[in-house]
Prior knowledge:
Chain A has 359 residues and is of the alpha+beta class. Helices cover 52% and strands 16% of the residues of chain A. Chain B is built from ten helices and ten strands.
Amino acid sequence: MNWDWEKLQQRQKERSKSGGGSGGSGGGGLPPQVDDIINKFRDFKFSKGWILIIVVIAALLVGSTTVYTVGTNEVGVIQRFGQYIRTTQSGLHFKLPAGIEKVTKVKTKRVYTEQFGLKADDVSNSSDFGVSRDEIEVAMMLTGDLNVGLVPWIVQYRIKDPYNYLYNVADVRQLIRDMAEASMRLVVGDRSINEVISRRQEIAADAAVRLQKDLDEAETGISIATVELGNTNVPEPVQDSFNEVNRAVQEKEEMIYQARKDYNQVIPRARGQAEKTVETAKGYAFRRVDRAEGDASRFLSRYEAYQDAEDVTRRRLYLEMMEEVVPSLGNKYIVDSRQDNLLPLLNLGMKKGAQDAGQ
Amino acid sequence: MQANKYIVITVLVIIAAVAFMSSAYRVDETEQVVITQFGRVIGEPVTEPGLKFRIPFIQNANFFPKNIQAWDGEPGQIPTLDKTYIWVDTFCRWRITDPVAFLRTVTDMTSAMGRLDDIINPAVRNVVTSHELIETVRTSNREMTTLDQEELDDVTTEAIKEVAEEEDDEREQYTVEVGRAALTRMMLAEAQPKLDKFGIELIDVKIKRVNYVEGVRKSVYNRMIAERKQMAEKIRSIGQGEARKIEGDKERDLMEIQSEAYRKAEEIKGKADAEATTIYADAYGRDHEFYSFIKSLEVYTNSLEGADLVLSTDSDFLKYLDTLEPLPQSSSN
């Protein structure tokens, strides 16, 4: 905008001067010493040499304004008497001399960066030092749940359409800044503080789309390359409580983790134990049945044999038992059945269970 | 007088050049011009860029920008309908659509800014004051997720989820009926008619920043802190609840596993015992007298070690010790 003003004022000044400039070359500041020039002309004797020199100088002046170069990352926009004529690509070009055609170079391949409140994300560790209030104000936003968040971000853009960029909007940079702030706040205004803190990418993408749409509507000729969010945060007085929530989240996870760990420590072991119990029982069952079958089959075999000679077998079995048992017995007393008075002589208390041995 | 002749020619050329220069003027792509003659507007405004001419010294060219201009509002403290004081910073884009009217009523850009201030600022104020704060902040009723909702992701207990979600319903106050986008359209609609007579068209009004005023900020921070603390407690409590639940699961699973194993084991053992009993009964049932005889013998063999024994010579075992009797007629049982 300033540019326009200066130009306008310059023009008005130009017009208010009654005296005109010298000739068509119309370089920088033209008019004032017209009288001096005329005086000088009077004093000079016009020789061919002088005229030649003047012509050469004039030709040089004109020539120097007819050649221009356009760099590789820019295009040249040519205006003739203010009217847009053409756009030239990089390289060496000619145009009509200054005063007739004017070239404006626009860096179309360059990526411009605008920062918004970017220093504000250092606010927690720099104790407000070097962070201007304004930076914080830029980053400070109301969230959709009426909390306050600090959202610093950058916008990178390119000039897509030099014509629109130059002529449609006054002070494009300011417009980009304003629109970027408006669109970012629109996006943040529809999100909770938690989303603002944890879903930066999503917000950045959304803001980029909105900003591009606004800029397209305004026909600014600007193409947004990226919108990136810095560290989103909450204002300093609230940060502690947010950290506490983070700690609580950690604690919660720790508690659940611990409980799961306990579960996992106990349950698989218990399952193994249970398997073991069941398998042991199965083993018992096998043993029990097998033994029963074994016992039964032994008994039956013996019984069959016994049936052949019952009495003898009985006796044999009895005596075999006695043969085995008697040597291992303690004191053995033999009592004559016809003598009754032996009993009192024995000290039966000496060995317990002696009487049990009687048949 | 060769020299004088040159001078005359030179002067004539200069005069011609001056006349040319003061009648020609350049109109930039971004400009439009209104020609006035002694203050009266002559003809249609010039909106096409290029080299133009006018009658020198009599006609005056008034340059105005044709492109879109910016207006940056003065941030102002405005109370919302729910009595919260906020700073609202707006900007708008505008352009001169009728340069003649603009020249007559506004004359230059500086006073144009003044007019815009006078008209847009009150429009912004009116719209903001007649709506609740949330309408200025939100645009849509997009669903917002809160931290505790995210924290419910790893919670499997229905009861805990229900409690947490009930609380969320209480927070449903953050919904809008109008929204920011509509609010800015209202501002535009309110301001535009008043600007028509100045030859100014508003393209849009946008809210750049909305912030709490200093005094409100403190209480908002306190609320945020309280909310966070509450949330922290809630998250801890969710964690504890979930941990308890897992512990419960553990106890239940443990007991289930153990008791099931016990049941299975006992069943198996019982079946085996029953089978064994049947087998024994089948076998020993053939002759239980013989069974008790041989079993008794076995028991004697295994259990009498070290016992004292008093045997009468009457007994079968010792009867041969006492006397040698002649063979009985037949063996006794």
